[in-house]
Amino acid sequence: AAGVGQQWVLVEMVQAFYEAPAYHLILEGILILWIIRLLFSKTYKLQERSDLTLKEKEELIEEWQPEPLVPPVPKDHPALNYNIVSGPPTHIITVNGKECINFASFNFLGLLNNEKVKSAAQASLKKYGVGTCGPRGFYGTFDVHLELEERLAKFMRTEEAIIYSYGFATIASAIPAYSKRGDIVFVDEAACFAIQKGLQASRSNIKLFKHNDMADLERLLKEQETEDQKNPRKARVTRRFIVVEGLYMNTGDICPLPELIKLKYKYKVRIFLEESLSFGVLGAHGRGITEHFGINIDDIDLISANMENSLASIGGFCCGRSFIIDHQRLSGQGYCFSASLPPLLAAAAIEALNIMEDNPDIFQTLRAKCERIHKALQGISGLKVVGESFSPALHLQLKESCGSRENDVKLLKRVVDYCMNSGIALTQARYLEKEEKCLPPPSIRVVITVEQTEQELDKAASLLKEAAQSVLN
Amino acid sequence: INHIVHNGGLYKRPFNEAFEETPMLVAVLTYVGYGVLTLFGYLRDFMRQWKIEKCQNATEREEQKDFVPLYQDFENFYNRNLYMRIRDSWNRPICSVPGAKVDMMERVSHDYNWTFTYTGRVIKDIINMGSYNYLGFAQKTGACQEAAAKVLSQYGAGVCSTRQEMGNLDKHEELEKLVARFLGVESAMAYGMGFATNSMNIPALVGKGCLILSDELNHASLVLGARLSGATIRIFKHNNMQSLEKLLKDAIVHGQPRTRRPWKKILILVEGIYSMEGSIVRLPEVIALKKKYKSYLYLDEAHSIGALGPSGRGVVDYFGLNPEDVDVMMGTFTKSFGAAGGYIGGKKELIDYLRTYSHSAAYATSMSPPVVEQIITSVKCIMGEDGTTIGEARVQQLAENTRYFRRRLKEMGFIIYGNEDSPVVPLMLYMPAKIGAFGREMLKRNIGVVVVGFPATPIIESRARFCLSAAHTKEMLDTALKEINEVGDLLQLKYSRRRLIPLLDRPFDETTYEETED
């Protein structure tokens, strides 16, 4: 029966074939031939380059010569020969064999050699060993870290704080955690290198405004506003940030925070404040620029600072409201993918915080010393002082450049060498010339610490005058 | 049977690496599990939006409610609904030295992991299988700690300056000479953070117009460094030498995209041991390829330095190769040396260039002196220069522990990824609920393990990762194995069907490379 059924279907098919109109058959025939052609033609490769034969490819591979991995560095490059410090970099420092008074380490509160800090670190070393052997997520969170975060949050009067194990990585991981591709960041021209790297990693649109120029910033904000009105849908999802520093490392200036707060509420932009130099320096209790200007700390969205200047430890922290800080615990790259801070350094930072809280008059002492040396350094022939009068990190730049940056650097080196030979340790501010967005002019860095006595300050000022006289004239 | 590669005499020892394929039923159930979780996630979000359920996240300030929202709701979906449920497996606070046994602070949550409170009790003597303590140098007594204490009282804890300014101590110079001698290279430079070593030095070595060939599973620091450099990045399949060779050939023959100019440099980025897979890089083949195509090799030995090799000098020592063949040898001091920081070793020209142009040398504070001393003492111990054989004994103990542990786990029937000799042992869990369950059950039995899920691993391949240490005695390992066996039976984790797929049969398809956009 099956055979008969099949035959029946076959007969039907043949009948249909005869009964179909001619054009139908011709069309079907063409389609079948087309399909057969496509089946047998060569497949079309999307990136089919010009057909190079195997031999030509091998020749190309033979001929190709790469550049050397690194270009040779001339032996007398100024950044190649480091100063070798034997012993601790404290108030009296032995550089290249000579004993000098230290005017180059950012040890503002003199806590580097403090016995209480050292004994707290020793106790921690005896309890925990040196390293933490893991990132924060995997058994690298110690009770010292939690305690330090709590203490910092309490000191700065914010809800929460988060610790990083490296000062540079703090702001460089914080910015990309919030600002992504398509967001807009307004940043000061004189922002430090760590901020620049954070911005580069975030892939956002960067708009630079002139250093401390609020009118320029307002102009940029207004331009952005007009852009927004053209495309309101996009504007509703584009986040905006302003990144500024409290005390700028590259110029020693202070940022005009009250005006920034006004701009913040007017144009609805969030503020990220980098307080590496101003933490432990400005304000009646050392809480930084917000205390200096008397601003409510909740008005600043994120404060980031490193613990390597006033706290004389290693690492950095960010503080702010929990809403903002908690996000970094999962998306801050330097926090999640890196080992946590060694406990002895965290313990040293806690003890340093204790000292800061117990002696609030050191900040006034530091400011007085800064004013003194700022006045004393005025009027040196050939060098001008760059920086606020209460900033503990000043720059001395040449009044007139002698043509090229290289020559300026050489000239300043001679001034620095003169001072080093007479017992004052100074250093030039070092930059990566090709990497900086707005390269500051070459300068000598002068750092004031609480441990320097008034005689030493005066000696340094007069020595600099002498050096400038002999070298620059 | 494992597949043993000899590959034309390049390998002097058998290279056993295996990745068993996910059983089909388990894969399906895992997807179902994630589907259910997602549905419930949407339900809970809906309830939170309509205020039926209390919203426990921190929220924006009242004054800033009309600002553009800082986080998109969807970004945090995974965080709110999946991660929160098992959050107690991570960030566990400890309060003792992270050695073979560790004390943990007990914490409880009364509102399903939204907030934690510390009861004040300390859980003592948990066997620590999570810390990267490969050679057992995380100690609070001993030669290393005493030397570090002495240096701490002499030098203090911080440095307060950068390397190029006033932060270059004599201790740093001593460390760098020692590290260079240890690795067998001409010169070395040390940095304060391992992550930063990669992200700040790769941009100094390559730039626009160069090509970076990076392994699929490279660490976040290598990826960040490659992106910051501005070079073109192309990714080759994990540990797959045919894929790498095809990329190299195509790159040299066709040049830069669109302009067809020849590339300035080609840099291959690989790691010694990949910490999520437990696999070891096929270094002899990579070096053969590098020499044939005249490219440069950047080897990140974060996990393998100290942990592999008969004398503990890393993956180069393990394969018996010449350290001068690797152009840039990078590694970290956090794992095997019990300290913190990273280093780069290589030829003198390379290190001189990095001293001048590395971002870290110009802008970042140098390493803390007691940490430097810990590294110096531990390196001397491994090399045997302190007069004892402790270092050698530890290296051997680690190798024995690794072999024993892996063998026993495989016998029990778990799926274990990676190379036979790697001290990083990933045990596959797959299903999302088992991630939390495994972590908690093991803690109840006083064993601390690390569990990882999405996004550190592909979504269905969540795993538990054991890090072996030379400080683990056989008794500790046996206890741990017994408990793992128990929990494995309880949670039905013994997926292995003993059908290990030989390595080279993993299909390599003729896909074109993917260029990552910047």
Give a written overview of the molecule.
Chain A: It holds the Pfam family Aminotran_1_2. The complex is a heterodimer of chains A (473) and B (518). Helices cover 46% and strands 14% of the residues of chain A. With 473 residues, chain A is α/β, with parallel strands linked by helices. Chain A folds into two domains: 78-104 and 361-472, Alpha-Beta Complex (Aspartate Aminotransferase, domain 1); 115-358, Aspartate Aminotransferase, domain 2. In chain A, strands 5-11-10-9-8-6-7 form a seven-stranded mixed beta sheet, sandwiched between helices. Chain B has two domains: 22-128 and 389-497, Aspartate Aminotransferase, domain 1, CATH 3.90.1150.10; 143-383, Type I PLP-dependent aspartate aminotransferase-like (Major domain) (Aspartate Aminotransferase, domain 2), CATH 3.40.640.10. In chain B, the strands form four sheets. In chain B, strands 6-12-11-10-9-7-8-18 form an eight-stranded mixed beta sheet, sandwiched between helices. The chains are: A alpha/beta (473), B alpha/beta (518). At the A-B interface, α3, β1, α4, β4 and α5 of A face β3, α3, α5, α6 and α7 of B.
